Amino acid sequence: MGDRVYKTLKYQEIGHYRILDIAADPNDEAIDSRFAEIEELCDRIAWDEAARVVVLVFDGEIPGVILRSSMEGSSLASLVAGLKLPVIAAIRGNATGIGLEMALACDIRIGTENARFGFPGINDGCIPSDGGTQRLPRLIGQGKALQMILTGELIDASEACRIGLIHRVVSSGALMSSAMQLAQEMAEKSPLSLSYAKEALYGGRDLTLDQGLKLELDLYLHLFTTSDRSEGITAFKEKKKPKFEGI
Fold first, then answer.
1. pTM of the model
2. How far apart are alpha carbons 123 and 130 in whole angstroms?
């Protein structure tokens, strides 16, 4: 698979992080391949023992592309959200409609100055279809999500950052370097801790507080059985940088 040529995206493996760059404007023939190729890569990354962080790069406005399989009802956003590894979204320009739904499926979102964000579909008689009505209120609260979706208003990058929709605002020229720097910093951490923290955060959302606390404690205690935790303790005592192996 190392020499696999993709029609709708570019894929790079750099150290312990992976970059998946979705082509902004694939040709008509390639559009049909988009879902299959991203599904293949998500599966590849899931089995990649060296992978610790994913950087998903995409154009926030994705015209004319159906990201949901009409045959099976499969969701591209769900493929991304289903990855156990942290996923950083590097969003080129505006993020609206399907593009914003893709961003919401990621864990950390980096946007660019002068970009706008929202779900304007209500103005054309439609609603979000790939998780937008579910993920947006969980992220920014029910009230603000209702306002954005029911009015179709677009908010600027500053406001999106203020309400937690995106986490960092950079210039267009600094988008990739910012995402790659963050990915490198995160990739130096224990991959077990990264995946367990993500599991606790997402897994606890629909649990009672007591159930969520139990999940958190179970995952915390399980880390004490790993070599990474021992390495972290040793490195702290010896005042050196830990070298995590993911075991």
1. 0.89
2. 18
Residue 218: helix, strand or coil by DSSP?
helix
- For residue 89, list its beta bridge partners: 56, 109
Provide the β-strand partners of residue 54: 18, 87
For 196, left (φ over 0), alpha (ψ -120 to 50), or beta?
A: alpha
What is the C-alpha separation between 160 and 77, in angstroms, rounded?
20
Give residue 172's pLDDT. Answer: 93
pLDDT at residue 2 greater than cutoff 70: no
**Could you give all domains of the chain from N- to C-terminal order, each with its CATH number?**
9-187 (3.90.226.10), 191-238 (1.10.12)
**Using 50, 70 and 90 to split pLDDT, how confident is the model at 138?**
very high
Q: Are 228 and 216 in contact (CB under 8 A)?
A: no
108-112 and 95-96: which strand pairing? unpaired
Cα(189)–Cα(210) distance, integer angstroms? 28
Query: Residue 75 gets which letter from DSSP?
Result: B
Residue 232 predicted with pLDDT over 90: no
Residues 231 and 243 sit within 8 Å (Cβ to Cβ): yes
DSSP 8-state assignment for residue 122: G
Q: Which amino acid is at 125?
A: G
pLDDT tens track for 52-85: 999 999 987 765 444 454 445 568 889 999 999 9
Q: Cα 115 to the chain's mean position, in Å? A: 18
Instruction: Judge contact between 30 and 10, C-beta under 8 A.
Output: no
